[in-house]
Amino acid sequence: MSPLKIVTRDTATGPVLEVIGDLDFAHAPALRERISTLVVPPGRRLVLDLAGLEFCDSSGITALIAAHSHAQAARAEVVLASVPAHTLRILHLVGLDQVFTVQPDGDAVTRP
Question: How many whole angstroms separate alpha carbon 111 and alpha carbon 22?
Answer without folding.
Answer: 27
